Amino acid sequence: MAFPTRSIAPDHFLAECTLTDGAILLDVRTLEEIREDGTLPNARHLDYLDTSFEEAMESLDRLNPYYVYCDTGKRSRLVCEWMASKGFILIAYMEGGTLALRASS
Fold it and tell me: Deepest of 1, 64, 66, 84, by most Cβ within 10 A of its Cβ?
């Protein structure tokens, strides 16, 4: 059974992540993107384009709530869809990614 993937506006995304017990903020951008733009506080990094990405994702606890983001929201949406297909229960991604977050600031 696949669980639904939620898209959350950047300002609500960060608030909900902060208020959710046990939430894991997951940055799926490349190291180069992180070097250029930095990362959000307390984010765990797993590079979506790395060959070991799927293996690293398989090791995550499927019962934790995950809040996933990238630059535009495209990769994070794909990651959330993959997570849903693998039985992760509480997953959401930042609509528009960090580009939308910076634009809303």
Answer: 66
Contact status, residue 94 vs residue 80, Cβ threshold 8 Å = no
Distance CA 88, CA 105 (A): 31
CB-CB contact of 45 with 30 (8 Å): no
pTM, two decimals, is 0.94
Mean pLDDT of 38-51: 94
Run of H or E including 80: helix 74-85
Single-letter amino acid code for the residue at 42:
N
d(CA 10, CA 102): 9
Give me the domains of the chain, ranges plus CATH numbers.
6-104 (3.40.250.10)
